[in-house]
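User: Can you write out an input/output pair for a complex, sequences first and structure second?

Assistant: Here is one pair. Inputs:
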Amino acid sequence: MNSANWLTSLGVLPLLGAVLISVLPKANDLLVKRVALATTLVVAGTAIAMATQFQRDNVNFQFVETHSWIPSLGINYAVGVDGIALVLILLSVLLAPIVVLAGWNEAVGGRWSVKTFYVLMLVLETMMIGVFASTDVFLFYVFFEAMLVPVYFLIGGYGTGARSAAAVKFLIYSLFGGLLMLASIIALYVLSGEQGGHTFDINALAHLHMSSMTQNVLFIGFFIAFAIKAPVWPFHTWLPDAAEAATPGTSVLLLGVLDKVGTFGMIRYCLTLFPHATKTFTPVILVLAVISIIYGAFLAIGQTDFKRLIAFTSISHFGFIMMGIFAMTSQGHSGATLYMFNHGFSTAALFLVAGWMSSRRGSSRIADFGGLQRVTPVMAWVFFFAGMSSLALPGLSSFVSEFLVLVGTYTRYPVAAVIGAFGIVLAALYILIPVQRALHGPVTEGNEHLLDLNLREKVAIAPVIAVILFLGFYPSPLLRVINPAAAHSIAQAGYSDPLPSIDKAGK
Amino acid sequence: MDTFVAPALSYSLLSPILIVLGGAVLAVLVEAFVSRLIRPVAQLSITLGTLVLSLAQVFRIRHASSLTAAMGSVAIDGPAILLQGSILVIAILGVFLIADQEHFTGLAAAIPGSSEEREAVKSGEKVTEVYPLTLFAVAGMLLFPIANDLITLFVALEVLSLPLYLMAGLSRHRRLLSQEAALKYFLLGAFSSAFFLFGAAFLYGYSGSVSLAGIHDAIESSPGNIVLLLIGMSFLSVGLLFKVSAVPFHAWTPDVYQGAPTPVTAFMAAATKVAGFGAMLRIFYTAFENSYWDWRPLLTVIAIITMLFGAIVAIAQRDIKRMLAYSSIAHAGFLITGILALNKSGLDATIFYLFAYGIATIGAFGIVTLVRDSSGEVTDLNRWAGLGKRSPFIATVFATLLLAFAGIPLTSGFIGKFTIFSAAFESGNKAVVVVGVLSSAIAAYFYIRVIVLMFFSDPVEDGTSVVIPSFLTRVTVIASFAVTIFLGVFPTPLLNFISSTATFLR
């Protein structure tokens, strides 16, 4: 394979799988699932092979590929990754096979066939790779918007409960944000045309001359789109509904990967394109981030439904990620990117187990469970482990990233870091309360005959647990990839780490 | 002094219009003299043959540019060729839909509910007068965007409007609604024509010329009373804005779209918009170019209220045809944005948008003709529930076209919206872009609601079904779908072609 087309091949593979599935006979669900699993495994393998070729210390985009797409508008098919994008692509393609395997039967009982489910899933995988890999703003926007379509049908077609309402809410929120971003993109396009030729190349756009007013307005257009996607308080209300209605597998991809597009976009687009506006808005955004941390955590405590609870914990975690990004220190940035990766895995663990629990019990209400520890010990332990990962227990991967974010924030914005740290205390509450209610105590009625995890489910969850543990003890493989990119993006935004200084009062 | 000078006409440059007019006359003769039995086939072949021949002729003269083709009355230039080509392509697809005689009354002249009508229905007669009417309308539409003086413009306006008034009343089902639509369209259309003529008179009073170039020169040297110019421009604009259904001149649109036979609605919605905006482009880009400080504020307001009104009111619609009518009002607002831009990219973008929107509209209405129950088309949105389950293919195509209307990437609608808004932004009109983007978000809501209904609702058992499309309807729907996707993914050839040819000749 030519080193120049790694990313394109990676993006095309799932599409090939989708095409293959669409010609398979409709009746043979098992074959469809096997092909889907095989495809996602091949994609994951390819991505890992690609990652081994990545040069860690090179802060430029790598695996770059550029083809002219719509030359009359200056639009290119341009892809490339830096350390941050690479990590997020790895996250997407590693979660995909896990989701397929864990949710082996979740497509049954949807509005449409199992086949359609996996076609949508694989198309979504292509778009996830594309959205992180694009280095052309227009191409990014195309993936950003187009990926709403498969998610919309995955939620609305295969979810439970008020699935169509949740799907519509998700779509409307995202479209609204996307259109605001479109207005900003149009402005960038026109400005680039005035300054020497229409282009959407992110590197070229970073050098545009803009008045600070223009920067601020365009920044807001991008930021709101990403804040809805991430989601940040007060743009978050679609997430709990969507997470509750979607199948567990869809929710994992939604919370684990799609929402990361928001935080990734903040780093890649808001910071790079509008450094001055970033400076202007940082205080406001930090306030929003801290509110999200605390608000998400409080609401999580009050939830009676597992899926909604996980959604609110995610809102709290996204607050941490945003705080890390806008703290503008290299630790904060590295921590935020690592957080995105780790959050993907710990949410996957939580959601998959919650999904298994609710499909066995026929309900995802916390009150319907009790004493699972005795009936289904393996499932209970896995849930406990996932919960510990979510509350960032030392030794598990989330701890490293949360610590980095808080350290990185404290050096510049101590108040935000201190208030944010309360989120950790609240996390203990929102995890331990449901753990106590659902897993411990006497076995409540209706739970006596629940089945424990079967082999397939164990195989699906094992790699998630392994990754969480491994990165908890030894995060450097990822950090070595992330750190140079994080430092680079800080430098590009015109910041440098505050130097440690001795208290002058002590002189 | 009294010597008569024969007008010098360049027949080859005028041939697209002349062919269509000739075809129309031939069709009238066929209507009068040919046996009833073979009339449908004969008319269809004449109509299609004429349109294809005309399109071929447009293609042949695609590099021509001349102001003297008809003594200065018409301008043959890049935009003219592009708009004529678009109108003909849309008309051909429209005729494919019209060919399904199921939609047309057996005896248009009969009073609804009368015994004559019952007899006509019983005898199974098929009317074919819709074909010559279509051809006359197409001829008017071909002339409208190339007309270079106000008199020719008015003649073209009438030639395209009068057949449409009649065609709107031809529906087989719900005759009263159809006739009401025709009457409304006629009365309001007559009003707007009067406004147009009145405006033309004032412009003549101001400039002493009816030619667009003359008005342009007069504005540049500003000889006369500016009030005459202002009145003239506003009344002329009323006439034009009525045709393209901009708010507040839109009131006829939902009723006529709903009442007219759906194939006619399809043709009218798509082709009239191209012709109307084509003429507006020429008038505002050439004649009124230098007084843009006078018309721009008002047109900006109209664009803004048109976009918002269309998008917001569409949300409340329960009838698919009315919803599409309000959506077409919102799109008229987006298109006015392109006229406001008043730059080369605005011109290119508007032409691209018109073509993309026209093709998608034909396809969308084509699908509306297919959803029926025993008494005819079903346009009540609630009864479209679960269409995705019953006929996944048709529902998917319709959903794609709706996504194109909503401007989702990888459809032609997105490229159209992107180019037209960036042209407006380039001209410094940022308010219009922001409102445009916001109303796109509002509009997305009702497009998505239809998709929800089709895919996420369970079918109602009330006899609604998708009929097997006739071959020609199938061609229209598939062509519209294919073009919409193709222009979304590979717009380059068309964009390049437009930008290299579209320059107004003055």
